[in-house]
Amino acid sequence: MFPVKPPQSFQLPGRFIEGIDEDIIQTLEAPNTNHFLFITKTRLFVYQAKPFAPLACHERTNESVELFGYNFGIRDNLPFGSKIKGFFKDQFCDPVIVDRWYFYVMTRNNFLLVYELYTKTSENAVFKEYGIPLNLSSGGNLLQSVVDDDIDDEVLTVFSAKENHKVIQNGYTISKQKGFMQFMRNDDIAEEMPIRRTELRLNVVLKFDHLIIDVIGIIAHDKDQPEQTNQYLLVLFDHGLQILKLEDFKLIENKLIHVIGGMRLKHCAEQILVLTSDGAQQSVQHIIFGEQKIESHSLVSTEFAGAFKDSVVFDHLLIIAYEKYLIYYDVLDKIVISKQPTSFKISCISALSSDAMVLLAENNSIVFMSKWGNILLSMAVNQADFKILHSSIIDTKLLVSGTNGTLQLWNLWKKSESSLSNFRTNKVFTLINDNNDILLYSPMSDSTNTSAFQTIKLPTKTVNNNVTVCKTNGILTLMVVYVANKGILLINFLNSNKWISFDQVDIKGIEWLSDDYLLCHFTDDENEKESVKCYHFPSLRHDSTSLEDFKVWEWEVPNGQRLDNFFANTLSTYKALKFAEDSDEEGDNSSKKLFVTSEILMVLSNSRVVIFDALCSVHPTGVNLVQKFHQYKTFNFPENSLRGLKWIYRYKDGFIAWIKDELVIIGQQEDEQWRFQVAYDRLEQILEKSEDSLVIVSGNEVLLCDFAHVWAVDDPLISTPVIEEEYPISISLDTATFHNISCISTQKLTKLSISHSVYLDKIVDRNLALGVDGNKIDEKYRDLKHYKFSLEKILSNKVLEHENLDSILALIDTYDRNSGDVVTEVGKLEIIGNCLRKIETEHWDYLFENLNLTPRDLITKCISLSEAKILGTMLMVFLNYDDGGIEANAEVPPKTPSQKKKKKKSNKKNKNQNTNTNTKDPSPDTSVFNILKDETVIGQVLKIFVSTAILSTTKEQAQEYWDFALQLIRFLRALDSKGDTTLAQTCLDLI
Questions:
Q1: Can you tell me the mean pLDDT for 430-438?
Q2: Are 41 and 100 in the same domain?
Q3: Distance between CA atoms of 876 and 964, rounded to whole angstroms?
Q4: What ranges does the record give for the region Disordered, renumbered to this chain (predicted)?
């Protein structure tokens, strides 16, 4: 998501053939083998990704270059477990045959160079030894049947010449311990991550008679007979898509599907797509293999979006990068769902994770971007001799390549999916990296003063940990961490930073229930059973090392069904279920009352949802003790309707669910059929769920609504745009502030920081627009920290737009009245003074007219109240006011930086309506010029400043009021540069 530190730079060894351009024109990731591959015009390099190390290189001769042409692209086989509708039946893709992996290099003279990568590295070894997640298109259920245990005899080994025994294994001494005990040791142990032997060979050269545009390789195995292998090549030419069936790369069968203007082949949602262009229109072609035809769908006009650049796949979503736009195409629904303009020209795009991507810009910038186009970080590469060309990523390693054989390797933070379970507490934002760092951020009560992450270290020195789960409970007292590749479950007691650990556990999913109950989803492949177990961790206990000792409940998935996912929602309000009969015994009887405090929703593979209620006794201290798990009800939904489900909550007589990228209402109709209705699309994340409020990032906006708004598909309470490079990660409802994360990255330093933005003004303004009574608004929001600032912000915006001010001025009066200031109007004066300071002088008269007050009235009120702070604010803004009364040649002192205000554009219509606003003759009552000439008024102002400065309790406060007085005198001297009055001297004498 963000870089951990500045990148490491590497340089390829130089070429010996003069005049050859050695730019790295394309990189390719092979996560299942822990390899990066990249090509220049004449060479193919293989590097191990983790740890980063060169392994192999194939350098072509002059004769090869002359005959076959330069390299211009490299392609891979489809990922393990991939499916293609209509292409073959009962088969799955596996790009490896025994110990050989195939890659395809395209050349300019229409040749295809097929390379073999010989290695003992398997998906299983990469996952367990290096901590790199498996790249499996169909999940992990195929892995057991096709992957054997890896043998450890193909690694770098050094033997002792005298004693003939191993001294170094993989570059490390072999005397260190291995296994689970090492994980909990605190001594400094280097982790052994083998640098495996890899051999690169050119297997075969295939010649074609037409220009090669793109290639996809397919190696398929039969599910029942994995030893049987079918090889295919899909080769895209300008005139069509050629389907070649091969045996040992010898042609067996050849088919052609006519596609004109093809630019790129893509595999998405079990379909093969061809991106095409006819010059004026960009389109996508769905290949229907069974009928050997295409189904065409238009994307965008070339004039509108610019030239095609690149594309990337997110589940069912294909994002196509053009020169000026990102086009979002839903492959399943076959529609364009969004067109996102960019402020830069794109050259390359790669997926960072399931909800983030990285774009390379033609202005030599690297842009980290969320899935729906919100810019997280933009960095310019300020190296004159390095032009970035391409990028690839494996887990948290981003490789950026470019001109002159230069490589940059970035280590990235990875966002851990936070729990959406607790409606009573704030959601926690979590980041992890490969150095065992965990960063936690959650807003506290005074959230604007909380800008730091809580940093926690995993209790190990090993650096090959694949952390798939890292979740805290609601009250931030417990954190669970699951290291998947080592089968280790860790519980951290955050108050003391003590860890307890359990090994040899295989867990698919984890959720917190309430504050100290943990739900875990287990699979038993040998017995073909699945279960969800609940564990209770009420306090720090070291007396047991068995996870089963903490178990309080278990539910087995019914035979013949599979648990796709489960969700736990700890509710904001508890439902009283049962009350015990009154007892004559002494003591508190409340512990005998049972409440429904939480719900557990088990989502089965056949779109069936089984709901359990957690029945708890609630202690007066707020501790919930689960007495029973009650199976409430089972619901059956249409087949595949819950595919891509990320969260679900029972609401009224239906459900609110996050499915794919949409917030969906699921309600039952009169005919008892389920109705699915989209409330909000382009859903990027749920920031918060608290009581009846829901805060989401939808597209490029943050939306705040309640569940009633969602259920009625109504407009949200507020919507505010996502600020570029300040991405929202949390919200404080008690202070009405968003918490945004940003990253500062230089050549020497990378730092994460938190900023805050207030949204209360939007809520208040929405209530005013709806005609809500001012007393109700004031009663509900006046105690919030930023309420007065919000009133000031609303007033300023309405003045700038010359909107009606009646409602906001009435609300300001209500604020003063409820503060006990019916006569004095202190709050109103402060808000008006700050408003004047923020808007240009051309808008002042519009405010004065609506207030039915003059500048003299405002100054006089401040004097009568002896409000030095407000008076100082008023006076400073009036000193910058020029209504034509101040002489043109007056030597007015320059404005200080704090006094300079950025000029805002006003509505053209309103400007025309108020053309003469600043040209009318100043009157003695309204002219600021005349007020500043009034010796009586100025004398009173100065006395207040001086007396307040003398009575100030701090040096800083006194200095502020002395500055007010001196600035006033300096202005008066400049105003009366000819010495026509004695006003300035009188003021000096007063001081």
A1: 92
A2: yes
A3: 8
A4: 889-926
Q: Are 45 and 186 found together in one domain?
A: no
List beta partners, residue 336: 329
What is the C-alpha to C-alpha distance for residues 447 and 449, in angstroms, rounded to an integer? 5
Instruction: Please indicate, yes or no, whether residues 86 and 188 belong to a single structural domain of this protein.
Output: no
What pLDDT band is residue 884 in, cutting at 50, 70 and 90? very low
- pLDDT 10s digits, 89-130: 777 788 877 778 999 999 999 999 999 999 887 788 888 888
pLDDT, tens digit, for every residue of 735-767? 888 999 999 888 788 899 998 888 899 989 988
**Contact between residue 240 and residue 257 where contact means Cβ atoms under 8 Å apart:** yes
Alpha-carbon gap, residue 85 to 291, rounded angstroms: 12
List phi, psi (to 5°) of 871: -60, -40
**DSSP secondary structure of 459-470:** S-S-----EEEE
Residues 109, 175: one domain? no
Phi-psi region of 646 (alpha: psi -120 to 50; beta: other; left: phi over 0): alpha
pTM of the model: 0.84
* Helix residue ranges, H only, 131-242: 143-146, 180-183
Question: For 303-340, how does the pLDDT look when each residue is reduced to its tens digit (9 = 90+)?
Answer: 888 899 999 999 899 999 998 899 999 999 999 999 99
Range of the domain at 51: 31-155+197-258
Q: Is residue 140 part of a domain?
A: yes
Any domain includes 371: no
Identify whether residues 180 and 81 lie together within a single domain. no
N-terminal to C-terminal alpha carbon distance within the chain = 59
Q: Do 233 and 101 belong to one domain?
A: yes
Could you tell me which residues come within 8 angstroms of residue 939 by beta carbon, excluding any fewer than 6 positions away?
Answer: 986, 987, 990
- What span, in angstroms and rounded, lies between the C-alpha atoms of 8 and 14? 19
Separation between Cα atoms, residue 280 and residue 193, nearest integer Å: 52
- Residue 286: CB atoms within 10 A of its CB come to 17
Nearest to 421 by CA among 648, 634, 628, 643: 648
Amino acid in position 858: L
Tokens of 764: 């208040």
Listed residues 235, 258, 281: the one ending a domain: 258
- Beta-carbon contacts of residue 735 (< 8 Å; ≥ 6 apart): 446, 447, 448, 758, 784, 785, 786
Kindly report the backbone phi and psi dihedral angles of residue 308, in degrees, each rounded to the nearest multiple of 5, phi listed first.
-70, 140
Predicted confidence (pLDDT) at residue 149 exceeds the cutoff of 50: no
Q: What is the CA angle 877-881-886, rounded to 5?
A: 135
Instruction: Beginning with the edge strand found earlier in the chain, give each strand of the sheet holding 365-370 in spatial order.
Output: 346-351, 356-361, 365-370, 375-380
- Closest by Cα among 252, 250, 257 to 274: 257
- Within 13 A of 901's CA, how many CA atoms are on the CB side? 17
Asked if residue 908 and residue 847 are part of one domain, the reply reads yes
Taking every pair of Cα atoms in the chain, the longest distance, rounded to a whole number of angstroms, is: 107
Q: Point out which residues pair with 169 in neighbouring strands.
A: 157, 172
Q: What is the pLDDT of residues 244-302, one digit of tens each?
A: 998 888 999 999 999 999 999 999 999 999 999 998 899 999 999 988 899 999 999 98
Tell me the per-residue pLDDT of 541-550, one tens digit each, with 9 for 90 and over. Answer: 656 778 888 9
Cα–Cα distances in angstroms (integers) from residue 226 to residues 82, 236, 682, 911, in the given order: 15, 28, 40, 77
For residue 553, the model assigns a pLDDT of: 95
Residue 396 · residue 413 · CB < 8 Å:
yes
Is residue 97 domain-resident?
yes
Residue 899 confidence (pLDDT) above 50? no
Are residues 178 and 132 part of one domain?
no
Phi/psi region, residue 726 (left: phi>0; alpha: psi -120 to 50; beta: rest), is beta
Cα–Cα dist 414/466, whole Å: 11
- In the numeric block, the tokens 């009887």 are attached to 589
CA 285/CA 297 separation, integer angstroms: 6
Strands (E), 445-497: 454-457, 467-472, 478-483, 488-493
- Please count the structural domains in the chain: 3
Per the domain annotation, does 707 fall within a domain?
Answer: no
Which 3 state secondary structure label does DSSP give 129? Answer: helix
